[in-house]
Specification:
Helix content is 19%, strand content 17%. The protein has five helices and 19 strands. 30% of the residues are buried. It comes from Hibiscus sabdariffa (roselle).
């Protein structure tokens, strides 16, 4: 800016000095002035179309007064908004883009909010993260939320929201947590529509119903799917074995593999040292699934695990097992799925007898995983 003024001044001086005989403008100056005018124009256009941190600030203040109207007594920290600073990027629970020009995240979790959901979140056109968990929100999710196309993270867990779920517009979503609410109806309105980038989906503890056996086939990035404690029916989804974690316990799902009780989480923390799989696990006779992938267990597999009569899935993928495949795996006759991908076996598929296990759900899939083991 300063440079521009100097440019303009020196040009005027030139004009008066030389009595306008030589009225060639300094070409460098004119370019700068042109750029300046362009910048002014662009800034104008942007603020007219409403995309600035100031617009976001106004909508946040709408949100604040909406919340204050519904919650006259107990209020969360949103009531401090606009008190210390007028810059919304500094307000509690608000995050902004790196250039501080747009609001990209709103965290109102645990904020003592009751009543209906705000129905103008779509006015934050760059909103990527929205966390409204642990409040007492009731009613339905407004249609407006479906227009938040940039949302990557949505957490509505631990509220009393109800109604049917139609989230077809949230196609950028990577993490979705709707657990512990009162949603009902089929989830086929939302899946696979929003599957594209989804990594985590938690729908547990609701009243969802309907079949699930095909809905998640297209969710190729999905790693954690929790459908537990609902009223889902039909057959179990057989694609689950490629997930890191899957639970459909406490539903009405039937089929070739009944509802699983997974212990995966219990032992999946990475302790950083090599230890054997606890032999005590062998005494939990009801155990149907044991997911111990991505760990550093020692390669000695306790024989006590053979006692698990109901064990249908055993996942010991990515445990850094090397050498020949452990002979004991060939004796897990009860298994429907054995996942050993991501280890560094050199051989042993037939010498262990694993290739002869007969109960596998989908032989094609399992064989593929074994090949993967040997070649990669
Ligand atoms: C949502 O916010 C925008 C921007 O402040 C405003 O123009 C619009 O009227 C609001 N819509 C609703 C339904 O409140
Ligand atoms: C959602 O919020 C709850 C409660 O605040 C939290 O425990 C949970 O981890 C969150 N879910 C995800 C997927 O981040
Ligand atoms: C899903 O949410 C429930 C309750 O909020 C929680 O207990 C469970 O661990 C979550 N599941 C996953 C896979 O994060």
């Amino acid at each position: 800016m300063f440079h521009l003024i100097v440019c303009a001044l020196s040009q005027r001086l030139k004009f008066s000095d030389r009595n306008m005989l030589e009225d060639k403008a300094n070409p460098r100056c004119s370019t700068l002035i042109l750029v300046f005018l362009l910048l002014v124009l662009i800034t104008d256009v942007i603020s007219v179309s409403g995309n600035s941190v100031n617009t976001d600030r106004k909508i946040l203040l709408n949100l604040k007064s909406f919340l204050e109207k519904q919650n006259r007594v107990n209020r969360g920290r949103y009531s401090e908004w606009n008190q210390g600073s007028s810059n919304p990027c500094k307000w509690h629970g608000i995050s902004c883009s790196p250039d501080m020009q747009r609001v990209t995240g709103i965290d109102l979790s645990d904020s003592k909010i009751s009543g209906e959901m705000f129905n103008n979140f779509s006015a934050f056109t760059q909103l990527q993260r929205l966390d409204l968990s642990r409040n007492t929100l009731k009613g339905v999710v407004p249609d407006d939320l479906n227009s938040c196309h940039s949302l990557v993270y949505l957490n509505l867990s631990h509220n009393i929201l109800g109604g049917e779920l139609k989230l077809t517009g949230l196609t950028s979503l990577q993490k979705l947590d709707l657990s512990t609410n009162r949603f009902h109806g089929e989830v086929s309105f939302s899946f696979p529509a929003i599957c594209n980038r989804l990594v985590v989906a938690n729908l547990s503890m609701n009243h969802f119903s309907g079949r699930i056996d095909k809905l998640f086939d297209g969710c190729l990035n999905l790693q954690y799917l929790d459908l537990s404690s609902n009223k889902f029916t039909g057959n179990i989804w057989t694609g689950f074995s490629r997930l890191v974690e899957f639970s459909v316990s406490e539903n009405l799902v039937t089929g070739p593999v009944p509802a699983f009780k997974f212990l995966g989480e219990l032992y999946s923390e990475k302790l950083g040292f090599i230890r054997p799989i606890p032999s005590e696990l062998g005494s939990i006779s009801t155990l149907e699934g044991l997911l111990l992938g991505d760990n550093s267990f020692s390669r000695v597999i306790q024989e006590s695990l053979l006692n698990l009569r109901n064990l249908a899935i055993l996942d010991l993928s990515m445990n850094k097992f090397g050498g020949e495949m452990q002979e004991v795996f060939g004796r897990f006759k009860q298994l429907k799925s054995l996942v050993l991908q991501g280890n560094s076996y050199t051989d042993g598929l037939s010498s262990s007898g694993v290739h002869k296990l007969t109960k596998f759900v989908s032989t094609g899939l399992k064989l593929q995983q074994f090949f993967w083991t040997f070649t990669g």
